[in-house]
Amino acid sequence: MSLIRAHSPSAAPSVDAMSEDAPSPVRQMRLVVAVDDFDQAVGFYRDVGGMTEQAAFNGEGDARVAILLAGEATLEISNRAQVSLIDRVETDGGVSDPLRVAFEVDDADAMTRRLEQGGAAVEASPRETPWRSLNSRLRAPDGLQLTLFQELETLEERRRREGFENGAVDEVLGRERELQTPEARRDPARVRAFLSADFVEIGASGRRTGRGACFTIRAPRCPQPMPVRMSAAATSVGAMYETPEEVESLQRLIDSSRAGATPHLRAIIAGEHVMTAPQIVDALIGMKVLSLATVTAKGEPRVSAVDGHFLHGRWTFGTDGRAAKARHLAARPPVSAAHVDGERIGVFCHGTAVALTPADPAWDETIAHWAAHYGSDPTTWGDDIRMYRIEPTWFVGYRGAEAG
After folding, report:
1. In the beta sheet, which residues pair with residue 64?
2. pTM for the structure as a whole
3. I need a surface site. Which of 127, 141, 249, 403 has the fewest CB within 10 A?
């Protein structure tokens, strides 16, 4: 394995940059990872990952270090827009850590399985990117976020392929940005025009759906495209459903919620820390773990975690009818919900949980979205699966410095 190579230069060198012919003053890049379980970490990267141990030393106070060879080392510097783009291509709504280590491997599928068996958690299964690499994302036992990537063609082959010649990568990325706009997502014909002939959607279960089948299945049910990943020169469409009117409505709720909040909350969620409706909608693409608070018959609060999907400015979630929260909601539908991603973002709302039924106008679209994400209809997961939508009466979002 080796550390990732940059796909293409992100900016021209400055006039002060060194000549390409001049030797670099930097002889080696060494990534230093502090771990709690030294033996586990060394075993994972050396024995499971296949890296060669170059040296190992012991010091005073049980100090231990191992230096592992990881092939060619490069430093990839990306701005926030590039990181967000990679997250959309490489994951199902995942978010990159400030530091993510990428390894080029010969077989991304096999190495992903191998690292998972060695203790890593898979955050995103292998999928093909628009620039013809096969990428997966994992979380190592020591907490380090990893990307595995397998190049499916040489750089020379990539340059000769239609859509990538003469630096046309910018055009592909432009398509990505256009397909993120509400106008494009509401126009199926426009989306079809962007899909390559070998378009493939990869569901969360690994099931692949071709270009024609995808639109045949989904067009009657969903007025906006479902999340897809495309091969060749095509790009990805994010699972954002909100119309401009829905975003404006959410913004009004955010403004009124902050205006009526306590001085304490307004002092915390202030200035650059206030999340706008467009920022919230963008941050909540994909599945997000939602902490849901319900109330018992005695008036005691209970909190549990559910899979939350933010559709049309509303949280949707499901549970089994045998769950305690299902009894609470049947008798007392007011709820509070929060999605907190460390110190990066926090989204909080109060409202009423509305039970969804097939008679609800949003039923088909909601079930189609969940089925596309998980690979099966959620209502088939048990004898009494209940789906809900939270109608918010109060909504705010906080963004920390790491959110950029």
Report:
1. 58
2. 0.46
3. 249
